Amino acid sequence: MKKNNQQEKGYVYIIGAGPGDPDLLTLKAERALHASDVILYDDLVTSALVDRFEGLKIYTGKRKDSHHFEQDAINEEIVRHALRGKTVARLKGGDPFVFGRGGEEIDVLRQHRIDYEIIPGITAAHGASSYSEIPLTMRKVSSSVAFCTGHPINKIQAPDADTLVYYMVASSVHAVLEAVLKKGRSESTKVAIVQNATRYNQQVFTGTIGEFLRRDRVAYSPALLIIGENINHFIEENWFSRKKKVLTVGGEPTHFSNRDYVRVNFPCRREEAAERSVLEECFNTIGDWPVVFFPNRFAVKYFFSYLMEFGRDVRHLSGARICTLGRPAATELQKYGILSDFELEPESPSAIAGMLKDGGISAQKVLLPGSNLVDSYLVNALEEEGNTVTPLSVYLHGKHEQEESIDLDFIDEIWFSSPSCVKNFSALYRSIPERITVTTADGETAAEYARLFGS
Predict the structure, then answer these.
(1) Residue 71's CB: how many other CB atoms inside 10 A?
(2) What is the distance between the alpha carbons of residues 325 and 346, in angstroms, rounded to a whole number?
(3) Domain Tetrapyrrole biosynthesis uroporphyrinogen III synthase: where (predicted)?
(4) 204 and 262 assigned to the same domain
(5) Which of 3, 9, 28, 42 is catalytic?
(6) Are 349 and 76 in contact (CB under 8 A)?
(7) What value does the mean pLDDT take over residues 339-343?
(8) Is 42 designated active site?
(9) Hey, what's the torsion of the CAs at 304, 328, 377, 119, to 10 degrees?
(10) What is the pLDDT of residues 72-86, one digit of tens each?
């Protein structure tokens, strides 16, 4: 018997991932993510969190070095997978209903009669409060709290509450503080800015409204602004700042207790022989591909690293049509003396297929370098035009994020699990500050560390 339309549709979870610390994910959210076929995740959701789950991961954030889609396109992608009968997890930083645009997403799901469920997350205000020891409410100090946003600047609100918390203020702190002054607060009112709340590199800056207004740049994203006399209870040596921050490069060490350490994972894996052989086979026949498509600048960077490692150069690509998705990929390509033959800048996933057709990319063999997690936006569009797509993993998902974001200034100790992990780490970091304690899993790993870092 044929199923009705509702039975053929999938199911969508709108999930709050919490403010940054992967361990703040709720048990219900974890169960839903394990049950999901597709996971669409935002920029503030760490790779350390999404890598726990098996579903197809689709990055929907707005990192400056990669192409991205706006909210309408994200809504479209959620619906597309759900209409194919998939269980979809929309994983968002913080809580979906606190400046998370969750309401917009469920409106779209209602329009398409797709069943959904909302799983709350710890919002940034609660995470920042707990990890900085700044209470949002406190007897005889603060009996009311208001959550606000720092945008748009011409509509900043300053409610009559004891404690004010402003989200998304990296570029609007001065405007927020001026709006608060206009509503009657004095320049001596206490202010705290919490950057990277609940993460290993969390920083807390305190002062008064007047002091912050006299500073030029006072915050970098992601940042949260707290205003109120409860900030008098902040202490520099709070419970989170007292923990040592250890960077674990590969493996799962057990001797770093959660009581004393915050563990920061640096993804590392040994190259399996099968993976190596796939890479070698591909680059040995690289001149046979009629189309090579780069979805982001990291794909370009690691592809050319392997191209030279296997004894090839740009001359071997002379017969291929080189395509890119987004300006960052095309710009990276120019560093290797190559101009993109076909550069896509679509406004939504549905626009990709039409652009490919107009550009004559159809019924061809396409090599798609990228991470070990395939970009489904592009693959689906290419296949719709009759292309045969061969993904090629040239870098590990999350590796470029670590390259961009791990700040050794906040790290107290580094632990290496294997010689290959030392080698991978050394490709990104040429030196390690002397103040950082370095430990290794065994003598072989220690020897490789001494060889590469000279100590």
Answers:
(1) 12
(2) 8
(3) 264-454
(4) no
(5) 42
(6) yes
(7) 92
(8) yes
(9) 120
(10) 888 988 998 999 999
Average the pLDDT over 302-331 and give the result: 89
Q: Which of 62, 183, 244, 335 is catalytic?
A: 62
DSSP string computed for 236-268: SS-TTTTSEEEEEESS--SSS-TTTEEEEEE--
Residue 442 is a catalytic residue: no
Burial of 251 (0-12, 13-18, 19+ CB in 10 A): middle
Structure tokens at 5: 């339309």
Average pLDDT, the chain: 88
In a domain, 100, yes or no: yes
Residue 226 sits in a domain of what CATH number?
Answer: 3.30.950.10
End-of-domain residue from the set 345, 369, 395: 395
Q: What CATH number is associated with residue 304?
A: 3.40.50.10090
**Any domain includes 239:** no
**238 within some domain:** no
Position 349 scores a pLDDT of 65
In whole angstroms, give the CA distance from residue 87 to residue 62.
24
Q: Is 14 helix (H, G, I), strand (E, B) or coil?
A: strand
Q: What is the mean predicted confidence (pLDDT) over 142-163?
A: 93
Indicate whether 91 and 160 sit together in one domain.
no
- Residues 408, 264 share a domain: yes
**pTM for this entry:** 0.77
Give the integer Cα–Cα distance in Å for 187 and 180.
10
- Domain of 358? 273-395
Answer yes or no: are the C-beta atoms of 393 and 275 closer than 8 Å.
yes
Mean per-residue pLDDT, 324-350: 85
Question: Each residue of 358-377: pLDDT tens digit?
Answer: 888 999 999 999 887 776 66
- The verdict on residue 39 lying in a domain is yes
Rounded CA separation 210/70 (Å): 37
pLDDT value, residue 273: 45
